[in-house]
Amino acid sequence: MNESEKPAGSQGADKPDPAVPDPAVPDPPGTESSEPPPAKPIQHPDYEKDPMERRKFLGRIGAAAGILGAAGYLALAPKDWPLSLRDTTGLRSKPHFTPVSLNDFRVPKPIQQTADVGIGRGGTPDQMLRKALDAVGGLKHYIQPGDIVVVKPNVAFDRSPALGATSQPALLEALINMLLVDCRAQEVRVCDNPIESPADCFMKTGIRKAAEKAGGRIYLPDSNAFKLLATPGATLIQEWWFFHRPFTNVDKVIGVAPVKDHNLCYASMGIKNWYGLLGGRRSQFHQDIHEIVSDLSIMIRPTLTILDGTKILMENGPTGGDPSNVVDGDVVMASLDPVAQDAWAFEHLLKRDPDQLPEYLHKSEAKGSGKIDYRGRIKEIL
Amino acid sequence: MSLPPVVPDPGSSKPDSPAVKYFPPPVRKKLRLTNVRIASQIFFFSAFFVLCWLTWTSRLEGYPVSRILEMDPLVMISTMLSTGYVYRFLGWGLLVLGLTLLAGRVFCNWICPYGTLHQFIGWLFNVHKTKENFDRNRYRDMYYFKYAVLAVLLIMASMGALQIGLLDPICLMYRTTATVVAPIFDMTIESIPGMDPLWIDNLKFAPGVSSRVFVGSFWIGLFMLVLVGANVFVPRFFCRLICPLGALLGVFSRFSLVRINRDVHKCTDCNMCLTRCEGAADPHAAVRVSECFSCMNCIDDCPEDALSFSMVGLDTKQVKLLPDISTRRMFFAGVVGALGYPFLKIHGTNTDANFSPDLIRPPGSVEESEFLEKCIKCDQCINSCPTNVLQPATWAEGGLEGLWTPVMNFNIAHCQLKCTLCSEVCPTGAIRKITVDEKLGKGEFVEQGPIVLGTAFFDKGRCLPHAMDIPCVVCEEVCPVSPKAIQTHDEEIKTVFDEMVVLNKPFIVPDLCIGCGICQAECPVRDDRAVYVTAVGESRSTERSLLLKNRSGSG
């Protein structure tokens, strides 16, 4: 029932509110209180008339004007005015990413040293690695105490290490131990963006266990771990999504790559390893594989590139999958010049014809990441 | 919370005066049964999520992550009816069944994580006054419905159509956690700025996968929300009205040794016991044992100490042991159940003659008709999948019967070669437990060959080297088998731009293809993939195979 339809005086008359004097009938001065109270107009007892005061009115008007004015400024001011949100073309709202750039992580080699490529032969992976590093001047020359070091193994597939499709955990463990114990690095980060499930690949390849045992930290990719990276001079990846989170505040970068056959670019070695840091629609790069690999050689300038010649995937690469595709080797390489290193490995580890070097090595040389001609720049420690 | 009854102050009253009856002050014990119950609920609720969190490739080290599902006696009984056997760890269901036979539906309010969720939400949004709660917690005639649901589902199961997972609380909760809760949680964790990456990896349900998606998970989430939201209108709506597991336990609780008992001599009919009665078990009158969740709230709330959870000296008159279901209703439920099976089958969207090419089951899955007899749609496999390839099937892939069963969507990801996690966590054997050797046809399984999920095909009109003279062959690179099931015919051609290009034109070797789908997942033609896998050729079924086995010329 509507309030106005209620019988007259049903509530107002029954419960007169003495606290509220009726404004309609003012008490004349001198009226005696014994007189019966004047009849009240029909009104709901909870209803109280609110007089709009001038101050309140002005306040409201002012607030409305302020809000509307501010909103109007934000929405309508020309776009070069401060705080303007105006977007006349619809292009201002397009997401804009500021590309980041990477430092050059290279360290000059010791004075009077000629070798750019060190080769260590024979013994355990630990010994081979030490020999290879000693050949280029020792790891301590390159890593300072307190450095944060990124180690980038190849963890692309969920294969066991014996299948040669990924980096060998023993070598990685030895390297991290050297970094943390011998060189007193502050932190070693191990990262890759595998083709298959990252968590699974890191586990099945044994990389996770090896890294954590030695004290390294695994960085797994997720959707917020990538940043747009600018690579000046690159053809295909002048700006491209890059697995950047592990590279935050990093001092040195070391690649640890296996030596593998590759169906499309003939061989996947030290330079191709950096492919694993790309994000985005990276499978498109197969349309111009040699160009992208040479771009990778200038995208990142690593402190050292280590090639793992202990398990060499000779065929059915880069995935492998069968132990018969793998040949055991006894070589670990460490290099300041990834191009020379890949050229040597192509000839001596994959046992391919040096006249048919992958085109990407020539392109990398042209882009200035190294020299194919390794003669006179190699030091081998047996 | 109930207030203690008004008692005369023992200090001021004279104990020797016969006129004043002395009531001892009520004992407000800290260690009340309800507090123990809450502790148990918190434990099992956390255990549920910890187990879901553990179900990930980097954390699984032999933990029994599916144990809560395996403890569900409804899963045990219904799969036993549909298949005739009890798979692997499903015998654990006897634990809960035994508990029910001894102590009634203790499971519902002490263990069941879904029940805990309902109780919590109901408690949180309960704005009603005590007197209103009396009425909300009285038994209502409609609560018989869950027994009808149980009867329908069990009859269908016994004929071979297992739909128990749609409404079984544990399956429902697992499914929702796997496809809705976990991805939303992960998304939130990822987007917290400045978070230490170590913490991101430790907290996320699925570290290392960016933004898992689950096709159709909106409906799974909505289903859950509606059921949980109904608590606002009817307390424990799902538990009292729908839950088939609760109904099953309700039937078995008839034999329980211990139960809630009302001492009619002490009872003053104040109805306070109804304030928080979870099961609508009528503790104020004849206690309905089949409805009682043993939440112990009524014992707390009784000002007269008339209620007890006991074994001796029970009132045999003021009690209803059996569920309140009429023969007519049960007969009707039986008819519905008996009709349900043919209704599902004649729908005909998942037969050997007419099935979706996208109906690609995870490796180790048993043959489709058997699969449908075993899969409880708990989606624990989907939870464990490290690549996100496993998806809850929609009607398009699974048909009416296979809704929310696992299928592989190779547009999203691929089946990882050396992974058998889904087969390890499956509680019912719809995905049989297999080893990597069995999956790949190695070791003792050489004769049998690898498990084939489907077969890859090329759409040569969309493939870059075939149709457009542009080099690509990502598919060949990623093909994981050795020798590769995608191989190439290489030819050198001159493009319109007068450049010599070597084209590797790929083709499928169907004898080698295992249907893992990585070629489709990585194909750069993103919308309609130029290489795609369909279900035909799957090795689990002879009716859906493609190639003649051991034919001449197959190598």
Quick summary of this structure?
The complex is a heterodimer of chains A (382) and B (555). Chain A is α/β, with parallel strands linked by helices and 382 residues long. Chain A has helices at 54-76, 125-135, 139-142, 169-182, 198-204, 207-214, 289-299, 338-348, 359-366, and strands at residues 117-121, 148-153, 187-191, 217-219, 226-230, 239-243, 252-262, 266-268, 304-313, 326-335, 378-381.
Give a written overview of the molecule:
- The complex is a heterodimer of chains A (382) and B (555).
- Chain A is an alpha/beta fold and 382 residues long.
- Chain A has two domains: 51-90, no CATH class; 117-381, LarA, N-terminal domain (Rossmann fold).
- Chain A has nine helices and eleven strands.
- In chain A, the strands form two sheets. In chain A, strands 1, 2, 3, 4, 7, 8, 9, 10 and 11 form a nine-stranded mixed β-sheet that branches. In chain A, strands 5-6 form a two-stranded antiparallel ribbon.
- In chain A, α4 runs parallel beside α6.
- Mean pLDDT of chain A is 87; it is low at 1-14.
- The longest helix of chain B has 23 residues, at 169-191.
- Helices cover 38% and strands 8% of the residues of chain B.
- In chain B, the strands form five sheets. Chain B has a two-stranded antiparallel ribbon with strand order 1-3.
- Chain B is built from 23 helices and ten strands.
- The model of chain B is unreliable at 10-15 (pLDDT under 50).
- Among the domains of chain B are: 33-130 and 141-256, no CATH class; 368-534, no CATH class.
- In chain B, β8 and β9 (500-508) form a beta hairpin.
- The A-B interface holds A 157-160, 195-200, 202-204, 208, 217-225, 245-246, 262-264, 281, 283-284, 286-289, 316, 318-322, 325 and B 56-58, 190-191, 197-198, 200-201, 204, 206-211, 386-387, 413-414, 416-419, 464, 470-474, 476-484, 488, 504, 518, 522-524, 526.
